[in-house]
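To make the argument concrete, we let one protein speak, a sequence paired with a row of structure tokens, as a model reads it:
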Amino acid sequence: MTGQLKDHLRLYLVTDPQLCAQTGIVETVRRAVAGGVTMVQLRAKHATTAQRIDLAMALKAALQGTGVPLVINDDVTAAVAADADGAHIGQGDIAPDKARAMLGPDRILGLSCETPQTVRDADPAYVDYLGLGPVFGTDTKTDHAQPTGFDGLADLIALSSLPNVAIGGLKPDHIDGVLASGADGMAVVSAICGQADPKAAARAFHSFKPEHKT
């Protein structure tokens, strides 16, 4: 599963309802996947669980046949109810062991880690991949930790054998730096959600091709 998961993490889209407002989340995702997005995280911080379930069901329909997994941010209940591919949690959310118990053994569970200690504490018995950063500051998450930069990102990556995805203010001109850090994937928000043409915006990341060793 690890190799396949790393392939999915390569271009990881995190939705933002405000940035996607003009096009809509579902249509933004549909176009972004056509442009090369390989995994989608539904992040809708101010939505209710019921609203997240409805959105997830619509996204599942849009993603049908693409092979692109859908995970839901922070809301494991919604992920289970919508039969999503998994969930992504932060350090202040439900504990990974409890999230795994709810998700079962076959769904994906991602965990955000911002410090060396949280990376070391991430237990592969429960967690499938790590979201590492923020690499740079970003307006889409105002309560983020101190940015790591590429050197800090590389240091975090070196602490765990789990698949990982870099996040935080990343744009196409950061591809070389993220590749050099050893990351398996790039998570992007405004670089795709905030663009008039999400398909073209996703295609701008086409040169991000990590060498995944088995």
The chain has a mean pLDDT of 95. The two ends are 11 Å apart (CA to CA). The beta strands are 11-14, 39-42, 70-73, 86-89, 108-113, 129-132, 164-167, 186-188. The chain has one domain: 2-203.
